[in-house]
Amino acid sequence: MGSSLTVRGIAPEDKSWLRREARQVGVSMEEFVRRLIREKREKNECRLKPSEAFARYFGPEHGVELPPPARSGYRRASFTDEGDA
Predict the structure, then answer these.
(1) Is 53 part of any domain?
(2) Smallest Cα–Cα separation from 13: which of 23, 21, 1, 24?
(3) Which of 2, 28, 55, 71 is most open to solvent, judged by the fewest CB atoms within 10 Å of its CB?
């Protein structure tokens, strides 16, 4: 399954940098760009907060509503005696 991507408007110095780096690694320029994109995507996926990851996969578009964040980080439990009225 091959698909190609054409990027226009790349500065000549950026294009020559890509060629040099790809040549050093020993791959084509297209493969080098694919690797850069994959690496960037993997780094960004690791930086999600737990609440962001939950919202991404189970958010409102999937039918789940997240509770509003508590300002103090947790809610204190209040205990009452059942005998008090």
Answers:
(1) yes
(2) 21
(3) 2
